[in-house]
Protein: Gfo/Idh/MocA-like oxidoreductase N-terminal domain-containing protein
Amino acid sequence: MSTSKILNVAVIGCGEVAQIAHIPNLIVASDMFKITALCDISVQSLELCSNRFGISNTFTSVSELLSSEIPIDLVFILTADQFHAEHIIQCADAGKHIMIEKPMAQTLAEYDAVEEARVRNKVVIFVGYMRRYATALQRLKEEIRGKQIKYVRVRDIIGNNNYFTSQSGQYQKYFKDHPPSSTKELLGRIQSNLKENLGSDDNNIGKKLDSRDSHSWSLLHSLASHDLSAMRDIIGMPEKCLFASRSNDDDSSKSWWWNVIFKYDGFKAYYEMGIDEVAVFDASIEVYTNDSRVKIQYDTPYVKGLPIKLIIQKQLPNGDFSEQVVRPTYVDPYTLELPLIYDAIINGKDYKTKPLDAKNDTILAKMIMDALVD
Structure:
């Protein structure tokens, strides 16, 4: 892979994931990338990142950024989920390549519009499903290749995110100096997207929305999308969702615990998700075949250097039980994405997390919500 050209990068959104992962990683990868501009509606976030990382060009709107004369080849979009599609299309129409944090969009129509912008402008739109770029995931696929799958268990039960972000070592800060109009716009988009995706009696296209649905949709597009996307990478899309259940928590507007069963040809996949008050990151995908159990075990990406492992259990020909732990690399998946993004832009190399691939996670979220048994 040639790295003779340095890609000029603008970062839109200077919050948690920018401060902990993306900006530091881009700065270290100076043989491939140079951050030339920052953009955020929070002036305080801009000032922090500008001073901390030595980036002088700052903007408070995407339009202002794109109309400037600052050199930009690639944009990292790390804004609120409900603005992702709009910002992607703006940047693509300006001829910029894009790395977009998941979820890429909120509605099926938004995915299609982003794909049209990708094709129309001939740009790379790389969706940051970093768990799918973990080296251990490829090792798992190699291990189960050609074997008949009997059962799959997908698990995402983690402690509150701030347990892990507080130990990232990046000294990130959080600010709330957002214009009141942006908060109002965000809340409006959340409700509009929810009605478009799930329907309501208000527009006569479906069932009445439950008070938990907004939180549920957000959770399925955030925490759940990591493992659901990785599940698709390993075993493909399910035929249908047979069953889904969510908890009745003390807060009647939230459901933190989920159980889901997907039907595949010849086997079923069980998905469980939850967020509790224990500082343990318990995220894994385990594939059961007749003679082996192969599990990829994830750890928090916010603490650098924690390995993603592969655990292989099998019965040996002599009857012995064997357990092998494979640690392919200590390099975190956020860092592993960078040369792939570079290669896609510079050398036109194909990549797997395109807009229409990401669309499948919203399709899965809709399948889950349609199969809910409360």
